[in-house]
Amino acid sequence: MRPPPWRMLTSCSRFSLVASQVDFTAESIAPEVSSSIPPSLVRDSPYLTHPIFSMYHTEHELLRYLHKLQSKDLSLCHSMIPLGSCTMKLNATVEMMPVTDPKFANMHPFAPIDQAAGYHEMFDNLGDLLNTITGFDSFSLQPNAGASGEYAGLMVIRAYHKARGDHHRNVCIIPVSAHGTNPASAAMCGMKIVAVGTDAKGNINIEELRKAAEANKDNLSALMVTYPSTHGVYEEGIDEICRIIHENGGQVYMDGANMNAQVGLTSPGFIGADVCHLNLHKTFCIPHGGGGPGMGPIGVKKHLAPFLPSHPVIPTGGFPLPEKTDPLGSISAAPWGSALILPISYTYIAMMGSQGLTEASKIAILNANYMAKRLEVIDVTHSVTHYMTFTKINIYG
Ligand SMILES: Cc1ncc(COP(=O)(O)O)c(C=O)c1O
């Protein structure tokens, strides 16, 4: 029979009373403890020094602390998720439903392909849709974020140059208006970064770009360009910019983070880019910023498709897979990145259709310009100079 609860209480308090009165210490019981760790590898510097690591001594205290942190998370139950402001989309519940469906959620990333036929059908279909939207020939669903896509894309470019014997091509031109991840990714790929300036409106200075490309033509690897730019500008000279890079032996990496100002209206492939990442967690509805993980697949033109990432456990490559492949290696731990969240983008694209997606781009552009105008008014009435610089340029149109 179990003792009544008050008996347990008394015995617990007796135990704590006894425990505080013991006349032994850990050292007195075991003055020496033999260890198989060689002395040279024994750590003698302090660790976990933040007070938080010694504040909670009971399971309940720790549980309550963790719950307090958890309740600070901002999710769709509370509000729209405020990151990805440039490309905010509706994160509809119906898009989210597959994520908790055990048929998707319980699939191991390394499950044999013939046991994950549904997933593979979705990869194929999504690859096709993304190719159509971007004007590319093949898509890799491996990179886990925009920055991871940048790294993957630049590594594809590097592999392409190497395959042609151009091992020395390592210069990457990046406009000063670029997002910070652009130079960081180029540096991670071992590239030498050459910065080019922008004019007062935020447009790339094309003459400066031409000079930089010509001066580095023997070693030019790539240009990284965001379209529309981080300033919200559709570069009027974008096709000329791409031409200059190609004429000087480089490849054009387009940062597609602002893709929702292109979908259905134009495309990176049409404009002249060779490779581009999409932030599915921005343009294609995956909630992020306190709300979930990301996906940054890359699309490429035919000549770069053989070099798309593969995986040592389950060989992958692009969708569709070209006949001959020469993959650069792998970019992510799992063969298809954060595959579980791909149904969100897939559902969104399928539900919107081509007309709906184009309409969404138009409305996004309208909203951005509306915000720009409103901020201009704030500027006049409240003299907020910060917004003045922002709104002097064209936001997505
Ligand atoms: C223009 C641009 N490029 C790249 C990125 C990096 O994307 P991610 O945060 O998914 O790594 C961002 C993200 O905000 C961006 O705005």
Automatic annotation (TrEMBL):
Cofactor: pyridoxal 5'-phosphate
Keyword Glycoprotein attributed: no
Domain Glycine cleavage system P-protein N-terminal: start-end pairs: 34-309
EC nos: 1.4.4.2
InterPro entries hit by this protein: GDC-P_N, GDC_P, PyrdxlP-dep_Trfase, PyrdxlP-dep_Trfase_major
Catalytic activity: N(6)-[(R)-lipoyl]-L-lysyl-[glycine-cleavage complex H protein] + glycine + H(+) = N(6)-[(R)-S(8)-aminomethyldihydrolipoyl]-L-lysyl-[glycine-cleavage complex H protein] + CO2
One Pfam family per UniProt: GDC-P
An annotated GO BP: glycine decarboxylation via glycine cleavage system
Similarity comment text for this entry: Belongs to the GcvP family.
Name recorded for this polypeptide: glycine dehydrogenase (aminomethyl-transferring)
